[in-house]
Amino acid sequence: MSVISETTDNHEEIYAWIEQMTFSKPKKNLARDFSDAVFMAELLKRYYPRHVDVHNYIPGNSVAKKVENWCTLNRKVLSKLNMKLRKDEINQLANSQPGAIEKILTDLRIKILRDCNADRDNLYSEFNGSEKGETVKSVLNPEEIANKTVPRHVFVRLKQELEEKNDAISLLKQKVTHLESLMKFKDQRIADLSSQILKPADYSTTSRSGNLNVTNTLITKQRTKL
Question: How far is CA 40 from CA 25, 88, 192, 209, in A?
Fold first, then answer.
């Protein structure tokens, strides 16, 4: 296979990969779409969410704004992923030079694949697994990363831990329900006691008021006689 043919095949894979993505605006022309680095930031956010804050990248039409976005992405994200761009590469991307974005996306795709396999291997080693699933061969679809093969003993252990946590949550919910019932009972008891305390006081007040009325009546009668 010739170099040109191989390059064309690689580009077709990149186009198919990007075509499956959803971005903040419709895709029209790959070079121009990625020229302000916003699409690249959104793409990186899918695979390296902790490194990317898409709000740092404002769409722009001027070359200066596009270069600024690429420089920010280069400093904040790409350098941490060991994919730091040179100034001439940034200028090529900002000016929508043909082939520039395809090269960057090809490198990114390879890195995502390697990181994906490395994460999977770390998962196996953590559980001392001797069996390893088939190597992930394609990342054209971002959902494939979430569908890596997991050994059965790892799955069983994770399932058991999940069931134990669910049981603990269920027990805590029962305790909360019981405590809520106790609180309602105590509130009702307090209300009953308060009612019993207030009733004698009301009766005493009424009695005193009646006695005062009788006394006032007698005094009035005596004054009338005099």
Answer: 13, 17, 68, 86
Residue 37's nearest CA partner among 80, 92, 81 is 92
Distance CA 18, CA 89 (A): 20
CATH 1.10.418.10 holds for 8-126: yes
| Location of structure tokens 């940034």 | 90
CB-based contacts of 18, cutoff 8 Å, min separation 6: 27, 30, 43, 105
Angle between helices 63-73 and 38-47 (to 10 degrees): 20
**What is the end-to-end Cα distance of the chain in Å, rounded?**
138
Give the predicted TM-score (pTM) of the model: 0.53
Of 154, 153, 134, 152, residue with least CA distance to 144 = 134
Please choose, from the candidates 86, 3, 1, 75, the residue with its C-alpha nearest in 3D space to the C-alpha of residue 41.
75
pLDDT per residue over 156-188, tens digit each? 677 777 888 888 898 888 888 888 888 888 888
Q: Where are the domains of the chain?
A: 8-126, 152-197
